[in-house]
Amino acid sequence: MLAVPGLLLADCLAVGVLPGVGRALAAGAAAFADRAGYLADVLGQPGVPVAAAPDAWWTASGVALGLLSALLAAGFATAAVRRAPRLAPRRGTGRLYRSAALPLRRLHSGLLGDYVAWLAVGLAALLVAVTAQL
User: Fold this and answer.
1) Which of 2, 25, 33, 35 has its CA 20 to 30 A from that of 107?
2) pTM of the model
């Protein structure tokens, strides 16, 4: 149970820290998205020049969004682990728990059908976002 998440975290660390890994993945992504080159390979036509791979390195906005994501994840995890104190419900993590974690706990019932429904909602939202970009 711990091997797969550990390998995924190690891969993410390698992509972020080692510049060669990020550049190789960016080149692969550019080749994967090159429709004209794919058609030329499949149909046996002469090669089409491949567009240059995008620069894959750290940017200020990428670092800021990564830190923001990590802070939000840590905040939600803290709110989920630390329940509202019974003696002082209006101080400390009580307000944070009621505003952030309690609505999430209500949405996650643990039933498989609910998770399938939320997966469908998330997929639909993702498809709408991708369609809006086209």
Assistant:
1) 2
2) 0.38
